[in-house]
Write a structure and sequence with these properties.
heterodimer; A: N-terminal domain of TfIIb; Rossmann fold; Dimethylsulfoxide Reductase, domain 2; 4 domains; seven-stranded mixed β-sheet; six-stranded mixed beta barrel; 26 helices; 31% helix; B: alpha+beta; four-stranded antiparallel β-sheet; 12 helices; globular; disordered N terminus
């Protein structure tokens, strides 16, 4: 009978499901992954989970879909003479090591890119690969710059953590300031915390480039100037119950999400907020508490694992002699102490690249540039569960297990480190990512320990503070969040970004790139038949991209939704259809992040540009 | 002990608790048994039982709905093979005999709602074959759950019909009421383990029902009045507009609801490595056509091929959900409210637009932000 081969319900209910952590955003919701032995077939909420408490967002409810429905990488492959062919694991790994070693020997730069959808263990091993045998600081998460920008303006202690209960603290805040793209989409569990606080009587002030659902329940919404968002609205303190030099009466909880694609602007805006509001840090201030919201499930953990061009594992500074000494002792080799380039810059500089679980064209602000850069690499070693433009360009493909098929930990936005286990085995010849990285380290000459996840975690506990409690280690060190001791991020250079501001009369409107990330561009969302529909239909409706315009502006131009306009900036021009929405302020045109490529010529690499708008 | 084979369809029998494990053992010999068990996080979940000691007899109704076992979140409907350019489609049916043990009555009512929907108009053989292979043994709620309001919508806590077997915990024994031939068969499996109920035990069961009806907490849901307002068009559109920001479009209200059955159909590619393809036919390509849960709260749910979306705005989707659940039009068509009062929407809602909150808003004609 066919049903016996495909897997019936009778086969599917062999256990209560595997403990899972939602693999999408960084809220850290818990769930049960149900399976039929071959596929993940369901996601169930967990009432007793401390973060999600029985709730899941649409992505959480569909978190079983990507591994079962996505285009998977099934076997190692190597490129030979322009063609790719399947290879054995040993052959592929040796080939990867040989390619990278050859580049190092002739002094060519190599780099490592790591996704926020990797586990902590994978991120740590990837950082060790870069700063160990590859001897490079060109190491980054493509969304890392956005997250680091959120930390940039804060006092040196970094995110408060609240002992892993930051969202609960949000729910009980008397006053909340929310700097957001659209929190209800980017971080639904955090949005629930805000809604609960408002329901309890908290005063909510929203700050952003567009009117979002949460801005509709806010006491006050303040629009940022799209060209100079870091010049905060003058009535901000007044909106928070302060003003005239007085601090707000109730210290606000400040939720920070990247609201624009330019990390320099995000950092400057956060810094301006920190200066106006002070923080709860040792320097005192008004007692405002800041909660930065990283995008992906493990963006924070990846940074704390050492994936950054300017930090060591544990988030420690590159010039910290104690940290370097400890790494030397734990790794048995000198860690590379120099800073490197961030994700966007390193892509243009390196000749060899290791990419772990990432598709840079989907996550970087300039997709076309990223695609070109990938094509020009001499060596591109890709570890991923899913096929992508990056794996298509690879010289060596190393298929790894999806998050739902492996064991590991993720660090949530609150700093909770949560473990999970495999619901189903990885398909084909894919292996757990940590195992592949471990082998690659060995082949590149790193002194190896025991090839076991427990051993990797024990090693991490020596250098990543958050991991000490997980393995029962009593290693010395502060319990402060790891990013704390990284110090202040250098002042962003805003000369270019600010130059478009005051005094420039060009253009009737401002074209603004919305946010710094779009779930519709995410590989896992694309792999889910339920989740991909919104983005797919938007792309089908607007194959050339679109911009959102306020209806009042449309009336003034005599156009309707779906009609096209010509946008002309000093950088270039494009003809695009408009969709209408009151979420956009008059005078502003918003480009969905997923459509950034269509408007790249007009934006000219900036997050905002003045444009002339003409009806076509 | 009197043999259960002598039971009449409307008979009342008693299972001493010390015999419960033996009865489950017997049930396991002839069918798969699904029952509430302790899940990995220490909370109750419905799952397939391997051994009798896994079965929970005193439990809070699991948050994850038992409808998964009649309407799986990912349900294989057909296998599609492509060989030499020709396609072969073979339906997949799942008719394994199953006993659903200790189902709460609200969920049992939900099961029957689903069956009516799948039997109406174009009957759905995949669902019906699976459903009709089920024996439904409910465990009446002598203590209402804290978030339940089944009393407001004929969902429990005790039922007069619909079950194959209804159990009531009388303390040292379970009283079993037979509701169908399938229930009688389940009782017969426990031959020698059941005895006829005494009059005192039957009276005690009625007392427990009355006690349960008096013990409901503050959670209520006045459907009648909301239905009148909807049916007489006295619900202003501003109400749904005001609700919009408080719904985060998680779809949890649909996915956890015992009566929601919206779905999508997608073809899942079966690679040879999955163990599902290849085989004796050596097909070039194999797909499994699956029915997957969907939610009317998702924006693209009603998106048409032309690009038109009749319910693009969130307010329209929320309105549609509650008009379907609570309107007189659907009450007449579906023969029941689209709610059994299990209260899961209260627990899973990512915002505050659960059934009691919205019904209260419809009645009052204003939205105050919903549940805290």
């Amino acid at each position: 009978m066919v049903s016996e081969r495909v897997g019936t319900l009778s086969e599917s209910r062999g256990g209560t499901g595997a403990r899972g952590v939602c693999p999408f955003c960084s809220c850290g919701c818990g769930l049960r992954l149900l399976h039929d032995g071959l596929h993940t077939v369901g996601s169930a909420p967990v009432l007793k989970h401390p973060v999600s408490q029985g709730r899941l967002c649409a992505r959480g409810w569909a978190s079983h879909e990507p591994p079962a429905w996505g285009g998977r990488l099934l076997a190692p492959e190597i490129r030979e003479g322009g063609e790719r062919r399947r290879a054995g694991w040993d052959e592929a790994l040796e080939r990867a090591a040989r390619e990278l070693r050859a580049l190092l020997e002739v002094g060519k730069a190599v780099g490592v890119l790591v996704s926020g959808r990797c586990t902590n263990e994978e991120a740590y091993l990837a950082a060790k690969l870069a700063r160990g045998p590859l001897r490079t600081g060109h190491l980054d998460d493509p969304l890392g710059a956005s997250y680091r920008a959120l930390l940039a303006g804060l006092c040196p202690e970094g995110p408060p953590g609240e002992g892993g209960r930051a969202l609960e603290a949000v729910e009980h805040s008397r006053q909340i300031l929310l700097l957001e793209g659209d929190l209800s989409v980017t971080h639904p569990r955090a949005a629930l915390a805000v809604l609960r606080a408002v329901r309890r009587g908290a005063r909510l002030v929203t700050l952003g480039l567009a009117r979002t659902p949460l801005s509709q329940v806010a006491a006050v919404h303040l629009s940022l100037d799209p060209l100079r968002p870091f010049a905060l609205p003058p009535d901000l303190l007044g909106a928070l119950g302060g003003g005239n030099g007085r601090p707000p009466e109730a210290p606000p909880t400040v939720l920070l999400a990247p609201f624009t694609s330019d990390p320099r602007i995000v950092a400057a805006t956060v810094r301006a907020l920190a200066e106006v509001l002070g923080s709860s840090g040792p320097d005192g201030g008004t007692g405002a508490r800041f909660l930065p919201l990283p995008f992906r499930a493990n963006t924070r953990g990846v940074l704390e694992g050492g994936v950054a061009p300017d930090r060591l594992p544990g988030g420690l500074a590159l010039d910290d002699p104690q940290a370097l000494a400890r790494l030397r002792q734990v790794w048995g080799m000198d860690p590379w102490p120099r800073p490197g380039l961030d994700a966007a810059a390193l892509l243009e500089q390196v000749r060899g690249l290791v990419v772990v679980g990432e598709d840079p064209p989907r996550s970087l602000p300039a997709p076309a540039k990223a695609r070109e850069a990938l094509k020009g690499l001499e060596s591109l070693v890709v570890l991923d569960a899913y096929a992508s433009a990056t794996s298509d360009a690879a010289t060596v493909v190393l298929p790894v297990a999806a998050l739902q098929e492996t064991e590991g930990t993720l660090t949530s936005l609150e700093g909770r480190i949560q473990g999970f286990g495999p619901a189903v085995p990885p398909p084909g010849r894919a292996r757990p990512g940590w195992e592949v990285l471990f082998r690659l380290l060995e082949l590149l000459g790193a002194p190896s320990g025991r090839a076991a996840l427990g051993a990797v975690r024990a090693e991490m506990a020596e250098v990543v503070p958050g991991f000490r409690s997980l393995v029962g280690s009593s290693a010395e060190g502060e319990d402060m969040p790891a990013v704390a001791r990284a110090g202040r991020t250098p002042e962003p250079d805003l000369r270019r970004a600010g130059a478009q501001g005051g005094g420039d009369a060009f253009g009737s409107h401002v074209l603004v790139l919305a946010g710094a990330f779009d779930w519709d561009d995410d590989l896992m969302v694309d792999a889910s038949p339920t989740l991909r529909r919104d983005g797919a239909s938007r792309r089908k409706l607007f194959p050339q991209g679109s911009v959102t315009m306020n209806p009042a502006d449309a009336r003034a131009l005599g156009i309707r939704s779906g009609w096209s306009v010509r946008l002309r900036s000093r950088q270039g021009e494009a003809v695009v259809p408009v969709s209408l929405g009151t979420s956009v302020e008059p005078g502003v045109l918003l480009v969905p992040f997923a459509f950034r490529e269509a408007l790249s010529g007009v934006l000219g690499g900036e997050a905002a540009q003045r444009v002339e708008v003409e009806r076509t | 002990m009197i043999a259960a084979t002598r039971a009449e369809p409307d008979g009342r029998w008693v299972l001493p608790k010390e015999n419960a494990g033996a009865w489950v053992e017997r049930l396991l010999e002839g069918a798969q048994v699904i029952a509430p068990v302790a899940g990995p996080e220490g909370e109750e979940v419905y799952d397939v039982v391997r051994t009798p000691h896994q079965v929970l007899w005193d439990f809070v109704n699991p948050l994850d709905p038992p409808k998964r076992f009649v309407l799986p979140q990912t349900e294989p409907l057909a296998r599609i093979e492509k060989t030499d350019g020709r396609f072969r489609v073979e339906p997949i049916h799942d008719e394994a005999p199953r006993v659903f043990l200790n189902l709460r009555n609200c969920d049992l009512q939900g099961f029957h709602f689903l069956r009516r929907m799948h039997a109406a108009d174009l009957p759905d053989p995949s669902f019906l074959r699976r459903f009709d292979s089920l024996t439904l043994v409910s465990l009446a709620c002598t203590r209402p759950c804290p978030w339940g309001f089944c009393i407001c919508c004929e969902g429990g806590p005790f039922l007069r019909e619909g079950y194959d077997l209804q159990l009531t915990d009388l303390g040292g024994v379970f009283l079993a009421e037979v509701g169908s031939a399938k229930g009688r068969k389940a009782l017969e499996a426990g031959q020698g383990l059941f005895r006829p109920a005494t009059e005192a035990e039957q009276v005690r069961r009625l007392e427990l029902e009355q006690q349960a009806l008096r013990s409901f907490g503050p959670e209520t849901c006045h459907f009648g009045s909301a239905m009148r307002r909807i049916s007489t068009r006295r619900v202003a559109d501003e109400l749904w507009e005001a609700m919009g920001p408080w719904c985060l479009e998680c779809g949890g209200c649909n996915l956890a609801c015992p009566t929601c059955y919206c779905f999508s159909v997608k073809d899942r590619s079966e690679e040879p490595w999955r163990g599902n393809a290849g085989g004796e036919g050596s097909a070039e390509q194999v797909w499994t056509r699956c029915r997957i849960w969907d939610s009317c709260q998702y924006q693209a749910f009603t998106l048409e091929a032309s690009g038109h979306n009749p319910r693009e705005a969130k307010r329209e989707r929320i309105k549609r959900r509650f008009y379907h659940k609570v309107s007189a039009q659907y009450y007449r068509k579906d023969q029941a409210l689209g709610c059994v009062g299990c209260g899961r929407c209260i627990l899973v809602c990512m915002g505050t637009t659960d059934m009691p909150s919205v019904v209260a808003a419809i009645r009052k004609g204003r939205w105050e932000g919903g549940r805290l």
